[in-house]
What we know:
Elements: E1 4-8, H1 12-24, E2 28-32, H2 35-42, E3 49-53, H3 61-71, E4 76-80, H4 86-90, E5 98-101, H5 106-129, E6 130-133, E7 136-139, E8 144-147, E9 150-152, H6 156-167, H7 175-183, H8 192-205, E10 215-218, E11 222-225
Parallel strand pairs: 1-2, 1-3, 3-4, 4-5
Antiparallel strand pairs: 6-7, 7-8, 8-9, 10-11
The protein binds calcium ion.
Amino acid sequence: MNEKILLVEDEKTLAKALKFNLEKEGFRVEVAFDGEEALNAMSGEEPDLVILDLMLPKIDGYEVCRSIRRSSDVPIIMLTARDEDIDKILGLELGADDYMTKPFNTRELLARIKAILRRTVQQAAAVRSFIKVGDLQIDVIKRKVTVKGREVALTSREYNLLSLLASNPGKVYSREELLEEIWGDDYSGDVRTVDVHIRHLREKIEEFPAEPNIILTVWGAGYKFREE
Ligand code: CA
């Protein structure tokens, strides 16, 4: 589906022109004419990007930005007047991703939007394809595991077990759950099979296998992957 942009702009002529140009580029556009409408729009389907005018009726762009940031990492491009404090807009306090000073060139704005969306997609892909904890790195795409940069040879079961635990850090898996997930429903083995595989895994990836700090035992419950 096409990416959705929330456009928050109270100047109706400008909002209309921008909406037209964004839609021409294939974006879906929702327009909010004041801060209140903007926050209402955020509680529905989350947009992929927000274009946010600073000077707005009811709730101003600063407050809207702060409020969005409390619950969302959605990229935000601020539309500002020439004399705005750019450090404040891009800094920790507001956390916008970019800004455009009015009056601006629409093509320039489109270029910024595309650059930010491209970056967001790349980051999302990077999170899925690499897991890194301490000296351990898992390349999910290549199914390759390294410790301190050195490749570790894992059996297919060991790898599957490791990547399942690692993809949900902090989640406790019981032995039965792991058996079912990794060995499958029809496996009639003992849950101690899981313990043996965990021991082998620890010998390969832990610095001190007897005192593991990556794959942790939760007494009476099962195992979990360390949270960063
Ligand atoms: Ca305005």
